[in-house]
Amino acid sequence: MDKNQAGITYMQEGKWELAAKSFMEAIEENPEDTVAYINFGNVLAAVGDSEKAIKYYDKAIGLDAKAAVAYYSKGNLLYESGRFSEAKIMFESALAQGLHSADNYFMLGMSLVQLEQFRLAVAFLQRSTELNPDDPEALFQYGLCLARENFIDEAIQQFNACIKLQPNHADALYNLGVAYGFKEDTAKALEMFERVLEVQPGHEMAGHGKQLLEKGE
Question: Span 168-192, mean pLDDT?
């Protein structure tokens, strides 16, 4: 079996040491094998050695500037470590090299959200949901971004789509309640806050929102 394929099989089985050994052997046999460097980086990322993983992604990029997956994988690690500006550049680079996946659009959008560039984020989050309309978290984040830009009706659509897929998504339910409150639809807002409290009885913001609505404030 090909060393890269063997390593991927080991990764799927959670056998990290054997996976690392297979990918290292692939690198030793062919030091120009970009895929092996990416795969070895993925093992390192999976076991929490992010900085070393980034070095292997950089090695892959050095060998092949069009290695879209390397940019994407490096971007994920930079995002996880709070380096959002750098992550954004990596996801943009992956996109430029042809990685038009829902995940890449989502992570680029989320990087822009973290950088508070909400208007720019909207387009990428929208594309993510178009490519994968069954991802409740992408629908929620897209809705949240729309709400921040005061596209309330459009945000409501996305929150509803999210809870259709994941009925107990407390954050989507809460923000749907806020959106209905903004539109002065008290009955629907109250219904959403009550649903949040069924899912998360200790949800303080939903509880506070419910009290305000019941008092007519």
Answer: 95
